[in-house]
Amino acid sequence: MKIVKAAEFTVEIDQRNEQLIDLDFDRNVLTIINDVRMNGDVALHMYTEKFDGVTLENFIVTDDEFDEAYTLVSETFISSLLKAKQRITDFHVEQKERSWFIRQEKGVVLGQQVTPIERTGIYVPGGKAAYPSTVLMNAIPAKIAGVSHIAIATPPQPDGKVNPHVLVAAKETGVECVYKVGGAQAIAAMAYGTETVRKVMKITGPGNAYVARAKKWVFGDVGIDMIAGPSEICVLADETANAAFAAADLLSQAEHDERAAAICVTTSELFAGELMTEVEMRLSDMERREIASRSISDFGRIIVVESMNEAIEVLNKIAPEHLQIMVDNPMATLPYIRNAGAIFIGPFSPEALGDYMAGPNHTLPTSGTAAFSSALGVNDFMKKSSIIHYTEEALKEVADDIIVLAEAERLTGHAESIRMRKGEAE
C-alpha cells in the first residue's frame, strides 16, 4: 500500500478511469453473443463445457435441486438470510413510486402512469465466491416493483449444480426460474432468448469483465442496470479515526477482486502510518490474502491531504462506490459529499453492514460513475408513461402557439394536425 499526496493520486484517477478499447476482447464477447443468438442452446452447451468444464442435460434448476439446497445450508444461514430480506424489503418499499394525476382548467388531465417491467433477468456471479446477497439486492426491489417474471442466470459448479446458498436465496425471494448459465453467454441468452432461456426486458447484476462488456453490447435490445467495474472503498479519516477499523474495512473490499480499489483519504500523517501498519499486519491473516494482497499492492492508496476541504475535493473527484466517513464530526462533512454510491457514517457503520443487513441496495455505481448515477432500486424495475388528456376547449386555447412552434421547426404536418382540430384544415 502506498502513501501519496493528492496531486499524485489525481493523475492516477485520470489514468484508471480512461476506458481503453480492447478490440480483441470486444471481438471475443461479440462472437459469443452472436453465436448464442444464432445457435441458442447448442451454443450455451458448448460454452458451458468450454468455460465451466460441465456437461449439462438441462439448464434449468429443478424442484429437487431447490429442495436439496435447503438440506445443504445451515439453519443459521436461513435465519440470517430472512433477517436481511426483511430489512432490505422495508427499505425498498419506501422507494416505490405510484401513478399520479393532476386536473387543470377546462378539463385538462396530466399525469404519470407507473408500471413494472414484465420480465427481468438477474446475473449472479460464481467462481471465486457465492453471492446470495446479490439475489436479495436484485430480486427484492424487482418483486416490490411488481415484475411478474424474474429469472436468475448463474454459472454451474463443477458438479453441475448451483451453489445451495444462492438457490435458497432465490426461493426465499420468489424467483421463478434459475438457469445454470454463466458469462457473456448468459447475458446473450437472457437478452435474445434461446430454446430454454426466456428473453427478458432488463438485465441486472454484477459479473466479470466478460459479463460487464456483454451487458454493454446488448444494451438497447434490453435494458441494463449499469456497467459494474471492480469494487471500491474510500475511507475519509482524521486523527480521531480508529486505524484498526479502517484497515479491516479497506481489506474487506480488497478481498473481492485483485483489481478492487481500497483507498483512504486522511488529514493526518500520523494516522496514515498507523493505518499502513494495521493493513500489513491484518493482511497476513486473511483467508483470501492472495487476492487482497494484489489489490492492496496495485490499487491500495493512503492519500495525505492538507485540510478537510482538500479531502472532500479528492473524494468528489474519485466518486467512490462506497465511502466511509470516520472523522470527529461526520454529519458536518456529509452535506459536502456530492459523489458517492453509498455513504457510511461513523466508526460503527462499516461497508460490510451495507453489503448484507442495513437495507439499502449494495448494487452501486463504480469507476467514478457515482458522479452521475445511483444505487439500484425499485424504480430500476419500473417504467413511467406520461398521461395527457385535453378537451376541445383546452386544445383551442393553445393551438395557435403549437402551430407557431411547429412551423418554426418546419414540421408542417404537426401544424396541420392542430389546424384540423381548430376547423382550419384546407
Automatic annotation (TrEMBL):
Q: Which Pfam families match?
A: Histidinol_dh
Residues the record lists as binding NAD(+): Y123, Q185, N208
Known catalysed reaction(s)?
L-histidinol + 2 NAD(+) + H2O = L-histidine + 2 NADH + 3 H(+)
**Annotated Zn(2+) binding sites:** Q253, H256, D355, H414
| UniProt remark on cofactor binding | Binds 1 zinc ion per subunit.
SUPFAM superfamilies of this UniProt entry?
Answer: ALDH-like
Pathway info = Amino-acid biosynthesis; L-histidine biosynthesis; L-histidine from 5-phospho-alpha-D-ribose 1-diphosphate: step 9/9
User: Which of UniProt's keywords are assigned here?
Assistant: Amino-acid biosynthesis, Histidine biosynthesis, Metal-binding, NAD, Oxidoreductase, Zinc
Q: Any idea of its EC number? A: 1.1.1.23
Q: Which family does it belong to?
A: Belongs to the histidinol dehydrogenase family.
Q: What does the record give as the function of this protein?
A: Catalyzes the sequential NAD-dependent oxidations of L-histidinol to L-histidinaldehyde and then to L-histidine.
Q: Tell me the protein's name.
A: Histidinol dehydrogenase
